[in-house]
Amino acid sequence: MASLPVINVSVKDLNSNSSSWAKTCDEVVRALEEYGCFIAVYDGVSSQLHDAIFAASQQVLDLPYEVKILNTSDGAGHGYFGQSPKNPGFERLTIEKATTKEGVEAFTKLMWPSGNDTFSETASTFVHAVAQLEEIVMKMVAKSYGVEQHYEPFLGSTDYILKFNKYESPKTDEPRLGLFPHTDKSFITILHQKEQGKGLEIKTKDQKWVEVDLSPSGFVFMAGDACTAWTNGRMEAPVHRVMMEGKKDRFSMVVSSYIRDLEIQAPQELVDEEHPMQYKPFEHYKYIDFHTYQNSRKLRNPLKHYCGV
Ligand SMILES: O=C(O)CCC(=O)C(=O)O
Ligand SMILES: [Fe+2]
């Protein structure tokens, strides 16, 4: 059975002038072109921070339903999701603009009107550490493709969301769908899991599901639809789902990035006769609106439908 490539991108092991750095760049690009994702081993989140973010996750998911539904979104379709007959046993809370102080504080204040500094500090530290991982890897990708000057402007124009996901165990011997198959509409999504084990599954190009047995020190680094368009189809957002089995609930943390103010457009270096332009330039948040309001789930390929050439 196939398994996802595991690549060490720990800061302590990478020196951007070394041959091992160049080798890691190659591995990262190959994995993203083949699978649309890989498992990153990354030292930016200590085991203390890992424990703290999942304690914070438990704390917020344990709040009463009446409080959790106060987590609404300003239009991007995020916010609280749960108790849905269509998706039983799945629950999610979302912090928007999670790398900003205002974003985290607004969420914390909704959940705990009298404040919860430990929660906001933990959420903020975690999301910054994961955003750093995205930057490290995307700089490798940009360097390998020779498009650093096109990636650089995104750095000041990226919003991050942080999602706290809980999947209840089916409590029977029958596996149950935890989250329906989809591609992420983000630029990049990075996924982290509380305990060693399976749950997440990725569809390969030959339409086979690969189970991801993720360890607590691993991060699934995944291309979203905006990355597919930006790389002119070289890195395709993988279809993924969650399958639940056994008697244990599963907790995951997801950080997704969205580009604001700038259009998503493949750099001219990635467009030539052999690789004609596949997607017209578009605004990421308008694509998110399309997804949220036009019921794009029914479409086989929402990105192609929205901006395909
Ligand atoms: O929890 C997971 O492993 C997957 C979550 C996911 O796909 C998402 O939040 O978009
Ligand atoms: Fe996803």
UniProtKB/TrEMBL annotation:
Top-level lineage group: Eukaryota
Keywords from the named record: Dioxygenase, Iron, Metal-binding, Oxidoreductase
The UniProt record lists the keyword 4Fe-4S: no
SUPFAM superfamilies hit by this protein: Clavaminate synthase-like
InterPro entries: DIOX_N (IPR026992), IPNS-like_FE2OG_OXY (IPR044861), IPNS-like_sf (IPR027443), Iron_ascorbate_oxido_reductase (IPR050231), Oxoglu/Fe-dep_dioxygenase_dom (IPR005123)
Any GO MF annotation of the entry: dioxygenase activity
Protein name: Oxoglutarate/iron-dependent dioxygenase, non-heme dioxygenase domain-containing protein
